[in-house]
Amino acid sequence: MLETLRRIVQEVNAAKNLEQALNLIVTRVKQVMDTQVCSVFLSDIPAKQNVLMASDGLATSEINHIRLSFSEGLVGQVYTRAEPINLENAQASEHYKYVPGTGEEIYFGFLGVPIVHHRNVLGVITVQQLEQRSFKEDELTLLVTIAAQLAGAIAHADAVGEIDGLHGDTRGSDRPFKGLSGASGVCIGTSVVIYPPADLDAVPNRKTHNIEGEMNAFIAAVDATKDELQKLKERIALLSSEDQVLFDAYLLMLKSKTLINKTQSRIAEGYWASTALRDTVVEHANLFSSMDDEYLSERAHDIRDLGRRILVHLQSGTRGTQIYHEKTILVSDELTASALMEVPEGKLAGVVSSTGSSSSHVAILARALGVPAVMGAKDLPTNRIDGKILVVDGYRGNVYIEPSNLIITEFKKIIEEENELTEDLDNLKDMPAETTDGFRIPLYVNSGLLSDLTASRDSGAEGIGLYRTEFPFMIRDRFPGEDEQTRIYKQVLQSFSPNPVTLRTLDIGGDKTLSYFPIKEENPFLGWRGIRISLDHPDIFITQLKAMLRASEGLNNLHILLPMITSISEINDSLSLIQKARNELLESGYENICTPRIGAMIEVPAAVHQTDVIAKRVDFISIGTNDLIQYILAVDRNNPNVAELYDCLHPAVISAVKHVVRQAERNNVPVSVCGEMAGDPAAALLLLGMGLETLSMSVVALPRIKWIIRKFSYKQAQKIVAEIENFEEARDIRAYLNKELDKAGLGGLIRPGKR
Ligand code: PEP
Ligand code: MG
Fold it and tell me: Which CATH architecture has domain 2-159?
């Protein structure tokens, strides 16, 4: 059964559109279940009706014509109850509704299963039979499994506008693709799709003016593939004659010209060689995989493998020459922080990723760079939008592809209003972050790039609360040496001197990887990351510590922050290594090496519970709420499926932060928040009332948070903290805080989607 299901899913995935997919499903399910009818109804929400979209067994003339109200018939029962209904005699049911012309009067056995996606019922799949018997358990479970698979395909088709006809509206390109807000702001720009190498499916649709160049590149790639296969074949010859057959088949395919000629004619039509190759390979592979003969259908796999090999050669000549538009919107299925950093200065206008969420490092980096970002836009057809005009609405998490002038004009207006607000906030730049009753809470900025230091200083920040040293590591192709790091850190320390600058030691692992230090783990966020790597690699750690200490010579504004502290031994060992680094520098002749202030990040629940003993060993504490939330709530910060559950206002998170603040205060150790929570207007109000000493946030959030602080009294904020003790749900807390912001005339700062 599993094999049958796998086949059906494969075929459905290869279908060109939803209509083809539904037709395939009804035919295959009818065959597999050896029944007489299989039909799919999809719900038309505005019309409150279930519409017959495909059927094998009922009169085809009724497809798209049968429309049943949501509560009508057995289909309506399955829909409203959101549960399967299995009847041996459907016609005897009080809910049975006979629709003349369908030809269903001869069927008795009925099984209907709801198609559910993320708690929403999208439609119903039914099977009917002549016999008066209910369907067997394994038949029911098969249909339930198929319905679950189908749900994803339908949701996708809905998102890309394929089921417009059903809704009878004209969504067109003015209906946005939905994702999650990654970084606030809106922008209009041209997309550049970044795709992983050697992945045919990821190749974007791209046109070319240089047909001859593309043709030559393709021929060269084919020749290189032939050479490679020939060499492989010779090597394999020593091992097994069976494997040789495979290479013969590959070489034959390359000689047979089918792949070659088709690809060449696509290039001649103006397509980029990689796009032309992708389409030809997919077309051939689909042809083979739909064959019933198992041997032939397996050949689809070989064709894709061959295509991938040609692609690798093709890309070895073309990658690295990425052209960026003046207003580039970087789009990818899996955007990396280093891809963002590769965009030339001044050209990055926005960021869109079909995976990840607002707490992913890509989103954090986008916020640091002050560009809007949409994350987790799961249904975005990334490989079809290269070079297209996009509108990115980072507030609502929406992406519009080539929208109408109406939308463009609307967003241009928003951009203008935003610029005005920024200008207004600019006036606060030189004013302190001080409440109406004179309580000061210095605001620091989070940084990680040298290029954002000017913007950081211009924001009115009073220091750097978190400099993520891993970012400079990520854009290099090897570990930076001590001198190189010293130069970088010196610039950072100088930029805010004499104000404090907090350099965090290397925090790689999780979603921050170095191409030259790959870490392959099943569960990277629970794996080798942060201080764990540094302590396991004292060579790398000591080099970094020495560079930090040397950079601080003559400036003495260095604070060192240790990430991912989970056990006291990690602090003890780190302190010893810092001491060792300092001693070695002094021994080798450096005279002005300061004793930096050392801080620990509290971003793991274990550290929350040990704040008291941690505070006894360090000079300051910084709460990393980004990770702390994911570990307290068991919600992967990168997973868009559970992004709704990731909320800094969850009572458990608030209680953890309170506990840390109390313990730090008891030990007279200053405590700050450097996670994104500090830049959330509603949360910042709470943090103010909780007595945090400083807050550190993105450069974009800083002026807004300062505005909030200057509008409230410390007393008011404390009262608000006491008030929310009574709430049990994050959404009630947010609603309450938003109301308070609104009352203070700051409603405009409430993030859409966080209302
Ligand atoms: C955090 O976890 O809150 C934090 C500031 O660190 P990062 O986002 O870099 O993991
Ligand atoms: Mg962290």
Answer: 2-Layer Sandwich (3.30)
